[in-house]
Amino acid sequence: MAAGLLATSHVARQRPHRSFWKVASRDVSERTIFEYKERRPDSEEALFAAANTRVSWRSSRRSPFPFLIVRFYGEWRWLKREMGKFSKVLVLEVECAKDKNPNTPGGKYRRDTPWLVEAFKKKGVESEILFITNADNADNLSSRFPNTAFLGRVNPMDYPGVLTLNEYVDILNGLDKKGLLLGPIPEHMDRLGSKMILYELRDSTMGVEGVKLHLYQNMKKNSGEIDEIIPKGGPPRVLKMMRGSTGLGVWKLENKSDDVILLTDAYTQKTEDVPRKEASIAVVLNKFCQLCQEDAISMPFLPLIKEGEFRFLMSKGKILEIVHKRPVDANAFTATLRSGAVYTILDLEEHKKMVDSVEKWAQDIKQIMKLSDIPYWWSVDCIEAEGCNDKQIPSSNPGRHLVLSEINCSCLGLVADTSEEAKQKGMRFADMIADICLD
Question: Domain named DUF6815: which ranges (predicted)?
Answer without folding.
Answer: 307-413
